[in-house]
Amino acid sequence: MSFVKCCFESTEGHDFLDSLVQKCTDPGCCCGCCSALRPRYKRLVDNIFPASPQDGLVKSNMEKLTFYSLSSPEKLDRIGEYLFQKASRDIYRRRHGFVIIAMEAMDQLLVACHSQTLNLFVESFLKMVQKLLESTDPQLQILATQSFVRFANIEEDTPSYHRRYDFFVSKFSAMCHSNHNDKPTRENIRLAGIQGLQGVIRKTVSDDLVENIWEAQHMDKIVPSLLYNMQTAEKYETVSCMETDTRDGLDDDPPRLAEACLRELVGRASFGHIRSVLRPVLTHFDRHELWVPTEFAVHTFKIIMFSIQAQYSYSVVEALLQHLDAGVGTRVRAARAAVLSSIVAFAAGDSVGPSVLEIINNLLTNLRASVARDSEKESDEKLYQEALINALGEFADHLPDFQKIDIMMFIVSKIPNQRGKGTKADSMLQSILLKSLLKVGSTYRTTELSKAFPAAFLDALLRLSGAGEAATRALLQRILHTLLDRRGNAAALAAPTVDYAKLGLIVEKCSRPDLIFISKHGYAIFSSLYDGLQLESNTAENVCAIYTTLALLCVELASEETVCDMLQLILSMQQSALSNPVLSTAQACRVHGAALALLALVPHVLLLPALQEYVAQIIEARREEAPHLLPPLLEDYDLSPSKMPNKLPYLMIDQMALAECLKACGVEARLQPAAPYAGAALAQRHSWVEAGAAQGRDSLADISAGPNAELDSANSSPGVQRHCGGGESVSLEALRRAASGPSEAERREAERRRATLNDTFRTAPFDHLLLITQPKYEIKEKLEEIFNSLSEEPLLGVGVGGSPAGKPTPCTKYFPELFLY
């Protein structure tokens, strides 16, 4: 009876009858029964263990156990539980050899058995792995990790809803931070920890039914563990994902394996999980002060940008932008901005639509905040600002040209438009944003001027040309140089000179679209540059910068149709240097030198021999008598009264001589008398200069005739001429012409004048139209003149309180408030 009871207690379910037929051969049985009466799976498990652990796993018996497991998959959970019990006893007894054999057997069963009941066996397997990881023996920990990695590479047929990996995440993360005294052992433990984390990621990240590995409690352990191992590398070598594919599985170095694991983690992250990875990265860098120096930070974020899905790359830039001002310390902010500038180019290619302007706006917002800090307290913000500007340039460099124009217009809209003296913060912000604009403009490749300078963008730039700070105005000119220079001539034209033969300038004929552009906007551009030369705060740098801009315009717009406009501007510059009382002697000499340098450039780009000879004569004369009126431009001139520019009229550029030189070269001269300021002297082609030639009413010719000129209403009727002589008789031929109307040629001429007038009002700037349509006299003054000249007869007869008869009384104005002036 006791025999049956003992065997029943040592067996399970239906295996009892099967065990009774076996013969008892185990003398160590506690109740007298034998192992033959035990379940078959236990006997098969027991048989795989050798007498001595050094002999290793009994392969023949292992094959029997594997065959039994495949034929009876319902026994897998019991086999796994029994192996776990045996391994637990061996761990407690420190019989590590048998533990290794048990783990090897479980690995083989795990690989061989693929069935729907595998989940039950996996529970025992994971319990055994956990048991080994909890031991203090590094060998068992590494063994358990290797088994877990093999398990992670197995694709299960059915998902598991209840399985949790939080213990493994914590344990593997702790192994990544191992500080074992023996260096090889320490590296092996860390390597095993990284491999374990990689296995957890592969097992969980692609299965939505298991535990969410993206939660903060897991990412706060995984990401810092990987970064901790990556920062121990001797040097940081960032390669793209394509180059790392060939190295997978071959890394036996913790930093390299940690990098591969981080790449895999970031590469598997979806849009909603990117922030879950980035947040612990930023926190780790802050806590351990890893931003300075920037090598490791740049290396890490480049790895992230290489690994992340392309369409999500801009989210990394946004996260770093939002983190720029976190914490205190200018050096840290500058380091973060430097990291941003190194990775922002990766996001540019895949950023479209609002994300582009959002990144630009964030950069500009940080720049404004930096300027505010810099103006309140003199802190070291320059490195931070330069890094942000570099980031802006790097981002724009990888965008298409049309987006660069949009970005430049967006930046210009943020620049405070102040003239004269302003606050220090506004001046600094203006300068910083112009530097940003210059950085973006340097990445733009100009093809047509009309595309590089949309009307709104050009107007905004020209408005900024009157900034109060001289350095800001010079910066604006550099922006114009960048956008105007299409053939690489800016460096050669950086300083005024009269010898252009050695510069090797590249000159091409002006295209038709560029001619249309300059005919439409030339007046505004030349007026702005002319006004820039009249400021008393100008330095030699400002004059040189304006010279370079004008020289580039001359080279880029080289054409016989534009030469007169350029010469007209040169004459106006010379006149302003002679007559503008605001300019000092040194400033006047600089303007004279820049004007002559521009005049020497014109025959060089257009091949006008007569003009070139005339310019050579002026240069030679000035070299002998007035070298201060020649380039180079100096900051100060020590001149005697006799050497003042106003005292040397015979060395000046003569308008009539220029007209004769142009005529000798076959170019139609349309030069107007030079004015001391811009005014009508800078009128563009197809404007009121040509309209005045038609002698229309209130044209430029009429305005220049003075206030006493008589209005000629007949000018509005083509072909009808009015004779000024009061007693002249009208001839019969004149009456016949008046009756028959204008001839065909006169009609064509009238149509041409009408088209010219219409084109002028469509294209000329408003300021120019306002200037040339000023009335010849003030209406109030004219009315006063009329009233004073009027006389009337007295209303009362002679002797009734009036004047003597025959002598008119001047009209007396009663109630003047009732009169219209």
From TrEMBL:
Gene Ontology cellular-component terms listed: plasma membrane
InterPro entries listed in its UniProt record: ARM-like, ARM-type_fold, EFR3-like_ARM, EFR3_Homologs
Region span, Disordered: 703-726
GO biological process, one term: protein localization to plasma membrane
Pfam families, A to Z: EFR3_ARM
Protein family per UniProt: Belongs to the EFR3 family.
Name of the protein: Protein EFR3 homolog cmp44E isoform X1
Origin species: Vanessa tameamea (Kamehameha butterfly)
Lineage start: Eukaryota, Metazoa, Ecdysozoa, Arthropoda, Hexapoda
